[in-house]
Amino acid sequence: MKKVLIFLLISFAGFSQQNFFNVPSSDITKAKHVFFQQQLNFINAGFQSSTTFCYGLGKNYEMGLNVIGVTVDYAASLADNAGTFIVLNGQKKWDVSPVFSTALGGQIGLSSLADGGAYAYSNGVYKLEHTKLVGGIYYSSDAYFGSESRGFNASGTLDKFGFQAGIERNLWKEKLLFQADFISGRHSLGEVVLGGAYFISKNVVLSAGYQIPTMGSKSQDAVVFEITYIPL
Known about the structure:
This protein has 232 residues and is mainly beta. It has helices at residues 2-10, 142-145, and strands spanning 34-43, 46-58, 61-73, 85-95, 100-111, 114-127, 131-140, 161-172, 176-183, 191-199, 204-213, 222-229. Residues 1-18 form the signal peptide.
């Protein structure tokens, strides 16, 4: 029961480093600078909060901390905190060419509601003139996403791996962006999020999107809002 509760918490909140909405964008925080992002996911019964900090270590490394699962559940009470999941995150990126890079990253954490869990990923990143494309594979333990298939519909360890992808497209003067991402699987994070982002200043970005469950997943429809501080 504890594992079920914690992966349901994560289904409504961004779970990684810098991301589109849920999928890591594989951007790296500049050396000796701090990245901050606050995400709120609203469903009929309430909302959940996810807070992310990343610190740039230099040489395309970053490390940070996520606080996930701060919950207001209207169905239970006016402000029912269903638990907090604290995770450490880390990422390394390699620039292969001016338009292509690869990244490895992940996180590990603990909660009062579950045993320790882990999430890891490998992404490829293409940067075109006005478009950024990200795609890769991920691994997650059951404590993070639950026991359902990640996308391969296999048995054993292979079924803990799935696919993830994201796209970002400049729409207007590098200030207004279209964003979308996708995570495979029948677990509660199997979903597509469609939305956009607007730079209200060079450092501060407001984002909004709509979360749509994929076929057979345990995700829920939700409205997603983010405010992000990006160091220059």
